[in-house]
Amino acid sequence: MKILLYWKKVLCISILVPSLGVMSQANAKGGEHSGMQSQSSGNAGIHKTLSKDQRKRLVKLRVGHRKAISVAKVKRRKLKIELALLVASDNPVTSVVTSKVNQILAIHKSIFMAGVLHKISVRKILTPLQRSHFDMRVLGNATRGRSHHKKMHRKRHPG
Hints:
By secondary structure, this protein is mainly α. The protein has a domain at about 1-15 and about 50-140: Four Helix Bundle (Hemerythrin (Met), subunit A). It is about 75% helix and about 0% strand. The chain has 8 helices and no strands. α1 (about 1-20) runs antiparallel to α5 and α5 (about 50-90) packs antiparallel against α6 (about 95-125).
């Protein structure tokens, strides 16, 4: 019973915290620590060549994209917690678990598609030279898979 209460609290917290503030005012305005300016590698050459109009349009795109993605990620996190509760129950029903997994996969697909559509809309804003740099970055990420830093910071399980 204590475990169930714990997971209900975790579920409530995971839903409430992201909804309190998706992005700070500084980030929305393209401030000191916004996404584009804080990237130190990869597309750094592209960002130096952006015009003010391009920067404004990209910031608007990024803010809208992050808002949409954050809502979907919260839903996915909630469903994952519900799935964990179902699996950890005494007699898990396979059909219910399967439907929960299908819901998680549908949300994951929508998040992935939103990312792809965002890249396409960003690409439309760029000049041909900027597009070539952007394309090299996209193609490099596709062939490399996970980045080096994500591998360094992944959770390690003993044994």
